[in-house]
Amino acid sequence: xxxxxxxxxxxxxxxxxxxxxxxxxxxxxxxxxxxxxxxxxxxxxxxxxxxxxxxxxxxxxxxxxxxxxxxxxxxxxxxxxxxxxxxxxxxxxxxxxxxxxxxxxxx
Amino acid sequence: xxxxxxxxxxxxxxxxxxxxxxxxxxxxxxxxxxxxxxxxxxxxxxxxxxxxxxxxxxxxxxxxxxxxxxxxxxxxxxxxxxxxxxxxxxxxxxxxxxxxxxxxxxxxxxxxxxxxxxxxxxxxxxxxxxxxxxxxxxxxxxxxxxxxxxxxxxxxxxxxxxxxxxxxxxxxxxxxxxxxxxxxxxxxxxxxxxxxxxxxxxxxxxxxxxxxxxxxxxxxxxxxxxxxxxxxxxxxxxxxxxxxxxxxxxxxxxxxxxxxxxxxxxxxxxxxxxxxxxxxxxxxxxxxxxxxxxxxxxxxxxxxxxxxxxxxxxx
Lengths: 107, 315
Description:
The complex is a heterodimer of chains A (107) and B (315). By secondary structure, chain A is mainly α. Chain A is built from four helices and two strands. In chain A, helix 1 crosses helix 2 (30-38). The mean pLDDT of chain A is 83. Chain B has three domains: 1-124, DnaJ domain (Helix Hairpins, Orthogonal Bundle), CATH 1.10.287; 127-210, HSP40/DNAj peptide-binding domain (Sandwich); 214-302, Sandwich (HSP40/DNAj peptide-binding domain), CATH 2.60.260.20. Chain B has helices at residues 6-10, 18-32, 42-56, 59-69, 105-121, 139-144, 229-234, 290-302; strands at 131-137, 146-157, 163-174, 183-186, 202-208, 214-217, 220-227, 236-240, 247-251, 260-263, 276-282. Chain B starts with 5 loop residues before the first helix and ends in a 13-residue tail after the last helix. Chains A and B meet through strand 1, strand 2, helix 1, helix 3 and helix 4 of A and helix 2, strand 3, strand 4, strand 5 and strand 6 of B. Strand 1 of chain A pairs parallel with strand 3 of chain B, so a sheet runs across the interface.
């Protein structure tokens, strides 16, 4: 296929997706995302986000990966969001450690 | 099209209760969850399990499937009879979530058709679902950018209103500076909309092929380079590979094996480019000739060196 026919995509870098776009990409309602943001389960789980401040907030590739993972665990195992977030935390930690092991040439 | 035995997929009897089906599903979902499973075909298995649960976990779909499937065995060639689903009312949408796009032809034909026909009948106008795909690239592609052809299965309606899946190839530009795990959004390349609604987007999740030479962490790249004892001891300018091509690297005199040299900004490019870390590995020449043995013996004699004594051989 000729190179000039290639589709050019948009790199989801730091803070790109709107709330609606993030929700759609996870096949959930915006409220699903808001609830998890408000209870600190998304966006690194580190800070409390109030509903009023959500307008204009943008989300990253990492948020998208985490949101999809939360949704999958919640749905597959029919568990509470908090438990799914705990699973996601552990998986992220394992990924971080594995990456470090690889970078150190251990794995 | 092959008949799919969803009971076999979940490993339950045809008489299983809803609770037993749920239990069997969770057990398998735990085993094959792609995030944790070590099984090589985990992703495919998970898809098959999800598909089976989608049907058997929904009383209406299960009843329709049971009636249809009583004379079929897994793998048998299968054509759904016309109006096989008459009298059944599938609740909710025919597809649940974006993953349903990945389900088999068999599923799409039975439940996709029913779901979509209903939506059409109600004059629904709906944006197509977003889709997701993983794309493997080489580390060098993240340095230079690349064009990749991606094959996707796209469900669409044929002239008879049946859902068929069609292979769709898409040539995509991978922008330079992309990181492991990062997404690229292709607007309008997701599932087609319904009733004149716009199509969804396609999200590509980027992963790197494992590389023999380089390891990656974020935008930083790591490599180890072999050096001779005299290059390490006396210092040297050596050619070292980087994902963007070889560069000359200055090895400082007095380097030990394991010394890490940073090549600033030679990691994955970006607004804040990563660094490239080169770890030196001192490789001893083999003592397999008289000459080599003599040189080692000379060193042993002439150099006052014992790495087991404090201070020596420490980094």
